[in-house]
Request: fold
Amino acid sequence: MSKKIKKIGVFTSGGDSPGMNAAIRSVVRTCAFHNIECVGIYRGYEGMIEGDFKPMDARSVKGIINKGGTVLKSARSLEFMTPEGRKKAHQHLLDANIDGLVAIGGDGTFTGAMIFNEEFDFPVMGIPGTIDNDIFGTSHTLGYDTALNTVVEAIDKIRDTASSHNRLFFIEVMGRDAGHIALNVGIGAGAEEILIPEEDLGLERLLESLRRSKQSGKSSSIVIVAEGDKIGKNVFELKDYVEENMIEYDVRVSVLGHMQRGGSPSCFDRVLASRMGVKAVESLLDGKTNLMVGLLSDKIAVTPLDQAVKGKSEINMELLRVSDIMST
Amino acid sequence: MSKKIKKIGVFTSGGDSPGMNAAIRSVVRTCAFHNIECVGIYRGYEGMIEGDFKPMDARSVKGIINKGGTVLKSARSLEFMTPEGRKKAHQHLLDANIDGLVAIGGDGTFTGAMIFNEEFDFPVMGIPGTIDNDIFGTSHTLGYDTALNTVVEAIDKIRDTASSHNRLFFIEVMGRDAGHIALNVGIGAGAEEILIPEEDLGLERLLESLRRSKQSGKSSSIVIVAEGDKIGKNVFELKDYVEENMIEYDVRVSVLGHMQRGGSPSCFDRVLASRMGVKAVESLLDGKTNLMVGLLSDKIAVTPLDQAVKGKSEINMELLRVSDIMST
Amino acid sequence: MSKKIKKIGVFTSGGDSPGMNAAIRSVVRTCAFHNIECVGIYRGYEGMIEGDFKPMDARSVKGIINKGGTVLKSARSLEFMTPEGRKKAHQHLLDANIDGLVAIGGDGTFTGAMIFNEEFDFPVMGIPGTIDNDIFGTSHTLGYDTALNTVVEAIDKIRDTASSHNRLFFIEVMGRDAGHIALNVGIGAGAEEILIPEEDLGLERLLESLRRSKQSGKSSSIVIVAEGDKIGKNVFELKDYVEENMIEYDVRVSVLGHMQRGGSPSCFDRVLASRMGVKAVESLLDGKTNLMVGLLSDKIAVTPLDQAVKGKSEINMELLRVSDIMST
Amino acid sequence: MSKKIKKIGVFTSGGDSPGMNAAIRSVVRTCAFHNIECVGIYRGYEGMIEGDFKPMDARSVKGIINKGGTVLKSARSLEFMTPEGRKKAHQHLLDANIDGLVAIGGDGTFTGAMIFNEEFDFPVMGIPGTIDNDIFGTSHTLGYDTALNTVVEAIDKIRDTASSHNRLFFIEVMGRDAGHIALNVGIGAGAEEILIPEEDLGLERLLESLRRSKQSGKSSSIVIVAEGDKIGKNVFELKDYVEENMIEYDVRVSVLGHMQRGGSPSCFDRVLASRMGVKAVESLLDGKTNLMVGLLSDKIAVTPLDQAVKGKSEINMELLRVSDIMST
Reply:
């Protein structure tokens, strides 16, 4: 049986996302609420290996709930992939009397946490923080809702200029393996077509669709392209292809880039982060380990970390149909 | 058996909310997709009584998905509460060959629709549009998510000045019968206390909580008050009461007011509106009636209108606990 | 002749405004650039009296340029109005080897600085920080541009609901002594009428104007009321008066309140704060004192503090005429 | 002597910018105020050649003051560069009884207007609408202030992720011929270096500056690059160059692109547009022609169109110095 946890370490790892600070704050305050200590670990596994720790009390996380990024910073650690690296990290945790970990990040972060748990029987809980929403076991990852709003606001601005000039825009949004962002912002921003990794529309059907929309009287159009779409061309090649095969449109490209990862979290992400932090800490206190906290059917739930890593977050096929109907 | 619907009327009624335009657009485009006609009815039941109609094709709803308010306008109609008023409305619908209705609004709107259906056997579907989220049968009403973001952004600004001056702010947010907004923005904005209609904290416990927070080292505090809270004092009386009983704080009041109802809808509300519009129209085409489209466990579902009106949208008690822990 | 300044103290006083942090950052970094020391003084004159100081180097102001409020906090100090209070403050400055001051605030702040200078021959420079823009010697005070954007964005949201319901809204904006905010947001938000302290429109003419606008086909209207307007009624009394004398409108009131003071500063305010901070520090280094840094004809300029305090920042009468024409 | 103007045509041409709609509204309402007619000309000179006109009354411009883009649409017209094209345009104006023009756009727009005036003695007034602020005779072009805010908000988001990961970002902003945007957002967003067309920093000095900032303890840095900078490398080549010559940084690139042109105009741009529209129309009514309306020292002023086109809008060298000091 697990012994009672007395000091929890919290860290962020992998790509940052809005809501990570709110999750850190929640972990710290939940520890304070239960009268146990909390330690911030800087730069993810890298700081764990270096012993880059800082004690955090309830007041230390004041004023961060609405800040993007992560006050604990993030990094990808090659050294943690080696047994020696993990041994150093473990020793630093022991030295600091840390006896439980809350890891905020994505698949890579959780894989590291599972290996660490296996090797040292160290209690770990995961909180899914990534804008891509590509993690099994939660309907929403931290930062996803914020990123959707950031992207639709950017596209609304591009729409202003697109419709003033009767232009066709290809807009690349984040999502290397998953089309969640593309699909939702495509509907939200009223896009003509949405190209996602999960579905190969095909170049010919894209052209057809654009021609049809032109004929139906639309003067400007927006096509959303997920980074990882499978159409076989990047967004600039798509532009060239369409320009060669359709003379009617003035075509432009916009790659939204890293601004999608930042910004003040939405109310949804702040509340979700707060709920997840509470559950992660209380799960450790209940003797649980190797679980990821998620949102399922609007309720906080846990999923074994290995399932979270192995499972696939499926896109909602209903949305593809809604998108088709909306671009009538 | 119901005859095949060929022309749908759509209207907005009651208080407006962000996402209503996106829902109108979705109803119109879904009609176009299924090759049936769509007619916009202005100012809710008022315009129905006056025959204030306008045919809407797919292009007519261009550029409205991101606009707050409702292009069809809204109103409360006393005349529709009379049999004579409803008879006039029915005649106008018959004259215009409208044989199905999509009503976007809240409880009052749905009650009107049910009576109308009962009297004239007229097919009606409801879409819940209100920022208050106080409707049974959907986890989210249209505009609720947008309002949450509008409110936390406003409170973030107030927080800047509160913490610069070590002040205590009472902030009144919308929600006459339901504390959904107050509870979520309270967590999202890091409020010290949240006063909602569903729970009576009591004045003495409020003072205690504020004193405790002051002692714990907090230099400024925010208390969220739902319009309909049960503490027995309005937000200005609360200020006076606290000032009389606690000398340490400079207390201020802010009533956020109608700005909470407007603004460009969030991505979530735009997608939800698009999905709901599709379901409402296709339900009519399937011969259904007297149902409200809602979101339940992230899926589009329908609930009988009478249940939607009679049922109560319960607040999530887990959030009250999270709020308590977060204000540690 | 003045001796060479070696250590500058910087503080914020009076009501906070967006851009104060950017100004603090600029003062600190300009000191670092010139290799002199800089000390932050907390809570304005109050902290000066208590010796609540903190050394600030270039890195200490990282990440604050885009934050509303003031990291040095602000307060109004009764004790500084007494000779004893000022004597204590002076002693603390001497003890800390501070030999020059940059005061960021408004009229009250500058008056305090002048008295302090007179009594102790202590070099002082002022930077105008207030959203009201009511200071002579600068076309723009810090925070004014940000507040204008905050207010028009709020009114845009109210407009959504006003035009959905054919309502008349009275919106109270900040500006106790000056109509700058009201006049600009009135034009920027397309208001029907603007009531400012500098001009008494008269109740009868207000009614006439509203009737005329109703007749001209406007379905909703917005009237901006500056806090300090001279029409003799507050915004709620105005509502009652108009409702009694005009039956056609459903009238509502919104008091925007303290959210107007907060928020991330606009680019304009960040750049202005940066320029003002440089000029304030370099003026002290040049042996100057008792001056306020301002923006005049787009150029950084200085004005004697006593003129800044005594002078009146006139509103631009051209804007009143533009407003009249725009509400045609 | 010029005959009295009775009907004014207004159009937008060239790249769109936020505030164009507010300017159109102002032109239309000022005409209504003076009881003269106003006609909207679609797609700039292209629509003039085709006679694509629409009468506009005061109510027709309702609800557009806060919209980005241009309701009259914009285009670049090759045909207007030919005498035949201009002859057609002139005939359409005569047929419609239009006897004065207000042209909203940039250098190309004004050049077209001057040639047209010369050939047909047709009264024309110009309003400078472009986000680049690269027009002589006005301190601010329409849309410039809005673009500054759009860009700093985007960079604030990128800063979140940059500082979470200790990264160096090269961010390309608009400005093919002028560094106004780059210089101001560079200061406003706290950039380490700003590369603009007006000044060639040199690659070696850029490296030095980045090394120095790294040594001074900065963990992340942002370099703003104007589209038209003269350093001889595009933003992606810059990234490669820096990565080859500095190992300490993880370098990323972001090209902000067309979102910079859109969005709801700032209060400043709305007020400026309103003032400019009044002046443009009243100048025509006063018998003036071939002038551009501008803002000089906060006052509305006019400049001959040929000077506006030939002159150069100089950047403020003070800002370069402020930027250097701020990156201490």
